[in-house]
Amino acid sequence: MTSVKNIKRWFWWHRWSSLICTLFLLMLCLTGLPLIFGEEIDGWLNPTHYAEMPKDSPKADLDAMTGAAKARYPRELLTSIFVDDDEPQVLVNMAPTWDPRDPMRHSLQFDSRTGKLLKDEPPFAQRPATFIDIMLDLHRGLFLDLAGELFLGVIGVLFVISILSGIVLYGPFMKKLDFGTVRRDRSRRLKWLDLHNLLGIVTAAWLLVVGLTGVINELSTPLFGLWQMTDVKAMLSKYKGNPLPGQQDLNSVQGAYHTAAQALPDMVVTSVVYPGNPFGSPYHYVLWAKGNQAFSSRLFSPVLVDAGSGKLVSVVKMPFYLRALEVSRPLHFGDYGGVPLKVIWVIFDVIAIVVLMSGVYLWWARRKLYESYFSGMGASLQ
Amino acid sequence: MNNNPFLRRWGMPLLMAVLSLFGLLSALLGDRPGQVLSWIALVVPLLVLAWYVFRKSW
Fold first, then answer.
1. Which DSSP state fits A231?
2. Among A110, A172, A336, A367, which is least packed by CB within 10 angstroms?
3. Which residues have C-beta within 8 Å of that of residue A176, sequence separation ≥ 6?
4. Domains of chain B by residue range
């Protein structure tokens, strides 16, 4: 049987892990709310009007689009292409240098069916951040990039500890109470203690999943870095010393796209990373393909196509930790079950805010609560 | 269920957790039917909460 001393230890963990992370978690819950509907909000604030065309209209040629982009910016590099599988658009990304954070990086939006240029976006540094961009930057890393991401990852670990210790404390607390008891008539503190426990225990599984997947998402930069330093490095080592292809020597990007699509008939190629991009290979086009079923559409496979010959080199197998990262994304964002799931996500998020705030309130009113908590367990503990 | 002290205390929390986890996974693993099951499974804990939180004050 759990001893009072043991429970006090759990209580200590619950109090301090929660208190340290509460302020940040409150920020995460609040910024997370608009992010759940981020795509809808962005589409509504910055709508793109596509020409009405039949659903199975053939796709326009990628070489023509990159050609048009290059003609507009002849001194710049083509860095990557995003082929949307949701909206009929292709984004061609360009930059003066390979620096992934180059402030002058920009994209050109094309209609994927007509190949017509829809929008020539201003450079990243001159583009006003959208509301959703700001929420996302704050949510992901407090505007601090990697340092902020790792910090919030630690906050997430504390959050998970506070949920687990909260679950442990629920047991002895409920020794004499029926599930769902809310003692409203005694004191405000007791009422909120009961509500905190009830709301917390019913949402515990959701909170744990969203907390844990949030931590994994915060590790995406180091995890991709690890992959690049190990598997990718090993894969590319045999090409060491080969001449580096310049952008003028590249084989057709449409050809590379076609080759990858043919190699993976059950998958959809959604992006092309140009040779030389630090997130790709110096010698290959890297094409990212995803499955076409509910679950497999969350799993990406990179395909290497030789930049010079245009021949298929390999379909790369992703390591388990990147698979875990890919599965963590939907489970954190709640964007995988239509609008009803997003609404459910919002409700859970709001409940999480109530659990957090009531927790702070209970700590504030701690002394009497602490007494009533232990006296509520009754004699059986002695 | 009321006679077993473990189930009396943990029965509902476990049921809520199982429903939540089932709901979280079914939309991920299944297509349209999986999504509908997921909505139902995840709404149940919310309805249970609403019942216990609001029943007396109405």
1. I
2. A367
3. A376, A377, A378
4. 5-54
In Å, what is the CA distance from A291 to each residue of A152, A262, A302, A334, A336? 31, 14, 12, 19, 14
- How far is A329 from A46, CA to CA, in rounded Å? 24
CA distance B57 to chain A (A): 9
Residues of A in contact with B40 (CB under 8 A): none
Which three-class secondary structure state does DSSP give residue A96?
coil
**Closest CB from A184, A202, A341 relative to B45:** A202
**Count of CB atoms situated within 10 Å of the CB of B51:** 10
Say if the ipTM goes beyond 0.90.
Answer: yes
DSSP annotation of A272: E
A:236-265 residues touching chain B, CB 8 A cutoff: none
Tell me the per-residue pLDDT of A249-301, one tens digit each, with 9 for 90 and over.
899 999 999 999 999 999 999 999 999 998 899 999 999 999 988 888 999 99
Task: Nearest chain B residue to A199 by CA: give it.
Answer: B49
Provide the Cα torsion A302, A308, A310, A311; round to 10°. Answer: -80
- Residues A290-338 pLDDT 10s: 998 888 899 999 999 999 899 999 999 899 999 999 999 999 999 999 9
CA trace torsion A332, A335, A80, A239 (10° rounding): 50
Q: Note whether A321 and A226 are within 8 A (CB).
A: yes
Residue B46 vs residues A49, A173, A201, B17, B41: alpha-carbon distances, Å: 38, 22, 12, 12, 10
Given a contact cutoff of 8 angstroms between Cβ atoms, the answer to whether A236 and A47 are in contact is no
Determine whether the interchain pair B35/A337 forms a contact, defined as Cβ–Cβ distance below 8 Å: yes
